[in-house]
Amino acid sequence: MRPESFVPFVMDCIKNTPGVARVQTLEEAGITTYPFGFVVAVGSNEVQWQVTGQLADGEKHDTPTADVDGGPAPWTDSTVQDGGEEWLAAVIGRAEAPQIAAIARWSTKEGSRPDHVGVTVTFHNGAKAFVRRI
Fold it and tell me: Degrees (nearest 5) of the Cα angle 92, 98, 67?
């Protein structure tokens, strides 16, 4: 799933999450520095996320993405309601999308930097979406 289709997917997931006051694209929020991303308001927090992608091996930008379905990714639920990394990973996981093979939080990786916050979503076709807090 490329960023241009992943952003609307994630925004739909977020819209259906309790406690969300607002979600909009970066562009709708007046942020034009990054082409793909979204802003979410949860409680008193407003969090901005940039989305970039990596194509599957052999895939080209000028051809459509081949969706590959499989079992939903394992994920960990969260009671945190702050719009942050743990919350976002749980929101994506709750969707149980058959295209998603794995959801990895950056802050839980060994040797992670405290300023390196985000989620990598790996798809069954080998493509990846990188969701970085900005």
Answer: 110
pLDDT digits (tens, 9 = 90+) for 68-78: 889 889 888 88
Cα torsion 86, 13, 104, 99 to 10°: value is: 170
C-alpha distance across the termini of the chain, in Å = 21
134 pLDDT above the threshold of 80: yes
Residue with tokens 């149980």: 96
For the chain, the three-class secondary structure string (H helix, E strand, C coil) is CCHHHHHHHHHHHHHCCCCEEEEEECCCCCCCCCCCEEEEEECCEEEEEEEEEECCCCCCCCCCCCCCCCCCCCCCCCCCCCCCHHHHHHHHHHCCCCCEEEEEEHHHCCCCCCCCCEEEEEECCCCEEEEEEC
114 or 133: which leads in pLDDT: 133
Alpha carbons 107 and 133: distance in angstroms, whole number: 11
CA distance 38 to 51: 8
Distance between CA atoms of 1 and 17, rounded to whole angstroms?
21
